[in-house]
Amino acid sequence: MFKKILVLFIFHSFLYAQVEDNLYPLNAIDHLLTTEVKDVLSKNIEDKRVVFLGESEHHIGSDFLAKTAFVKYLVEEKGYKDIVFESDFFGLYFDHKKYNVFPLWSMSKQCQELFEFLEKNNITLWGLDNQTHSYYSYHNYVNKIETFLKENGIAYHDDFINSVQKIIKYGTMAKKEFTNDEVNALLNALDNYLQNDKIQSNKLWYQIFESFKSTVQIYTINSSSTEGIPIRDKQMAKNLSFLVHQFPDKKFIVWLANAHMAKYEYEFMKGKTMGSDFNRLNPNISYHIAVSSIHMPYRKEKYIEKSAKDATNLLHFLPSTKQNYFIDSKKLIEEHTEFETKEFEGMFGFKKTKTNWFKHFDALVFIGIGEKSVLLK
């Protein structure tokens, strides 16, 4: 028994040492990135046009503050001039304004410094979401589509325009406003438009019609999360891929949830496969940074202490759960290929947390003392 315990101790000590070689302390949240971490990032993103910045939950303000520090670095020192939010693709394509971004960010107290920085540095805001939630879409979607069809001599019926209007007006509640026949008629019309030569030759409008078709699906017949999430994630990957190809000279920062940007598709992700779908469409052009805050008002200290003592938990690798750290997963796997298959518990926003975090993400960022997001009134 003693020998078995000794072997396990030596094994875990060995793992700890390997991770420790790629673990870097970070500064306090208001000046987070150290010179050493910037050097690591500089090497890892040298050939990357897309940098994903994930958060564990949409309500964690300390995740937002940490991500803002990375945005500043990427803009000021690496020349990234465009940021894509997990927000309305259509609205932000035509109107790059803060008010078209989901309020959970645009109205978060912890994101105000971010948006002030983006405006000051003339950073263009984009969206990748097929959900048509934005101010711009609500007021302009129907008119833009109708104008495009008219100007290109493409026939349409009033029933189609009326159905588009209902989708935009009612959003996620649109299912109650349609009969099954009306939904099928709208989807058939969109299928016909996607086969139209003039629309197929216009890359932007083909993308808009394709994205809108998926919007109709998740707002009506596939409105449950089980059905809707895979549709949404696949379309978000296509929308982001469109932006990357439409603007080949641009470098993009992508602001979203950790769960949507994981690099590999696993069953437990339950359809949140945007990151893996994007990777398949655009191999080797992206770098994925996941952020998680440890101590939160709703987490019990005993739970965190227990997790830190557990050799199968990521917190076990941290010298302190109350400090900020950066793990270079990319280099860790390159140097120690056995970590490609090792699974650990974590707190990066997944319902089932035991997985291969080092393979999911190129970098893991831990914020010791977290805080919830505060929405402005």
Explain the overall architecture.
This protein has 377 residues and is α/β, with parallel strands linked by helices. It is built from 17 helices and eight strands. The chain has an eight-stranded mixed sheet. Helix 9 (180-194) packs antiparallel against helix 11 (203-219). The N and C termini lie far apart (61 Å).
Strand order of the biggest β-sheet:
1-7-8-6-2-5-3-4
Task: Give helix % range.
Answer: 40-55%
Cα gyration radius (Å)? 22 Å
pLDDT averaged over residues: 93
Based on secondary structure, the structural category is alpha/beta
**What is the approximate shape?**
elongated
Query: Strand portion, in percent?
Result: 5-15%
Q: Give the N-terminus to C-terminus distance in angstroms.
A: 61 Å
Question: What series of H and E elements makes up the topology?
Answer: HEHEHEHHHEHHHHHHEHHEHEHHE
Q: Work out the number of β strands.
A: 8
| Regions with little confidence, pLDDT below 50 for 5+ residues | 2-11
Number of helices: 17
Largest sheet: 8 strands, mixed
Write the layout of secondary structure elements.
Layout: H1 2-20, E1 23-25, H2 35-44, E2 50-55, H3 61-78, E3 82-88, H4 89-94, H5 103-106, H6 112-120, E4 124-129, H7 135-151, H8 158-170, H9 180-194, H10 197-200, H11 203-219, H12 225-246, E5 252-257, H13 258-261, H14 274-281, E6 286-295, H15 301-309, E7 325-328, H16 329-335, H17 357-360, E8 363-369
Parallel strand pairs: 2-5, 2-6, 3-4, 3-5, 6-8
Antiparallel strand pairs: 1-7, 7-8
Helix pairs in contact: 7-8, 8-9, 9-11, 11-12, 12-14
